[in-house]
């Protein structure tokens, strides 16, 4: 059997996915987690599609459950709202019960994939090594990973936040050589702020954003780190507090859980970020 290996640069170069000017756009991502029924997914996607004011300054992404990706993808076709997945496996095909490949996700119309969410790290034992493999696979398939990092409350109280973030990024991004036409989104999600109604203080968030930016500059050429990596905030972000974060120098958007489950609240964030 002859196997043709196509360089990653060609694959992404040929793909419909180009950097375009997206890097200058804010990005608001709904992570619906495991909260919606198939029918609720459709209603939410329709409502958000209709309610989003089209803007060149931001992207809106919906991440449904795997089982609703196809149906939500159909709803979002020819709209400005994009499709994302909540996870992806690190291989393209094989005996991996319950998993889904980046290639399939792309075929279903996904552009973004959340990788390394703290709920997967905590409940499913996902390690930095697994996350690293997933990131490589996602990039190789021409998708844009949304890598999640964040500290526990104990780590914050012990003043270890910067170190925790540094360690996660170093391991998660190990051996990844970003190409010109590839993009990464890094979501800073303090674990203690997820689903609790508590957020980090904006100046504390900005401090972590700076750590993340510096880490990417240490890993990749500075221009690329600045041009191909967006940093966003997640953790009880909602329609009442997003403004405190979006004005921060390094904040390029949000990864929203609870507040994305009510179309009205999510739309208030999307349409407010401009
Ligand atoms: P909440 O917005 O519910 O805190 O969830 C954040 C999150 O985990 C998004 O990925």
List the helices and strands and how they pair.
Elements: H1 8-14, E1 26-31, H2 38-51, E2 58-63, H3 69-76, E3 81-85, H4 102-107, E4 110-115, H5 118-123, H6 128-140, E5 144-149, H7 153-157, H8 161-172, E6 184-188, H9 202-219, H10 222-228, E7 229-234, H11 242-246, E8 253-256, H12 263-272
Parallel strand pairs: 1-2, 1-8, 2-3, 3-4, 4-5, 5-6, 6-7, 7-8
The protein binds 1,3-dihydroxyacetonephosphate (13P).
1,3-dihydroxyacetonephosphate is lined by residues 31, 117, 189, 194-195, 234-237, 255-259.
Structure description:
With 274 residues, the chain is of the alpha/beta class. The chain has a single domain (25-272), classed as Aldolase class I (TIM Barrel, Alpha-Beta Barrel), CATH 3.20.20. 41% of the residues lie in helices and 16% in strands. The chain is built from 12 helices and 8 strands. It has helices spanning 8-14, 38-51, 69-76, 102-107, 118-123, 128-140, 153-157, 161-172, 202-219, 222-228, 242-246, 263-272, and strands at residues 26-31, 58-63, 81-85, 110-115, 144-149, 184-188, 229-234, 253-256. It has an 8-stranded parallel barrel with strand order 1-2-3-4-5-6-7-8, surrounded by 7 helices. The relative contact order is 0.15. 1,3-dihydroxyacetonephosphate (13P) is lined by residues 31, 117, 189, 194-195, 234-237, 255-259. Residues 31, 117, 189, 194-195, 234-237, 255-259 line the site of 1,3-dihydroxyacetonephosphate.
**In the residues, how many domains can be counted?**
1
Secondary structure category: alpha/beta
Reading the helices and strands in chain order gives HEHEHEHEHHEHHEHHEHEH
Q: What is the topology, as strand order, of the major beta sheet? A: 1-2-3-4-5-6-7-8
Number of strands: 8
């Amino acid at each position: 059997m002859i196997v043709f290996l196509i360089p990653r640069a060609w694959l992404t170069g040929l793909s419909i996915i180009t950097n375009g000017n997206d890097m200058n756009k804010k990005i608001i991502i709904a992570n619906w987690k495991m909260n919606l029924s198939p029918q609720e997914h459709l209603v939410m996607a329709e409502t958000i599609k209709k309610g989003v004011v089209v803007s060149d300054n931001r992207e809106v992404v919906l991440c449904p459950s795997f089982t609703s990706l196809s149906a939500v993808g159909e709803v979002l076709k020819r709209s400005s709202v994009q499709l994302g997945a909540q996870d992806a496996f690190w291989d393209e095909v094989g005996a991996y019960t319950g998993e889904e490949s980046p290639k399939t996700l792309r075929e279903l119309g996904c552009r973004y994939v959340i990788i390394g969410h703290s709920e997967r790290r905590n409940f499913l034992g996902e390690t930095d090594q697994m996350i690293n493999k997933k990131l490589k696979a996602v990039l190789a398939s021409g998708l844009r990973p949304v890598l999640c990092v964040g500290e526990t409350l104990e780590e914050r109280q012990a003043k270890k936040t910067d170190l925790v973030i540094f360690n996660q990024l170093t391991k998660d991004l190990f051996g990844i050589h970003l190409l010109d036409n590839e993009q990464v989104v890094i979501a800073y999600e303090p674990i203690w702020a997820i689903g609790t109604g508590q957020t980090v203080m904006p100046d504390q968030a900005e401090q972590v954003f700076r750590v993340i930016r510096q880490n990417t500059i240490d890993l990749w050429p500075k221009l690329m780190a600045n041009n191909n990596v967006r940093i966003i905030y997640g953790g009880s972000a909602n329609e009442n507090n997003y403004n405190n974060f979006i004005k921060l120098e390094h904040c390029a958007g949000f990864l929203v859980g609870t507040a994305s489950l009510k179309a009205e609240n999510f739309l208030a964030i999307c349409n407010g970020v401009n």
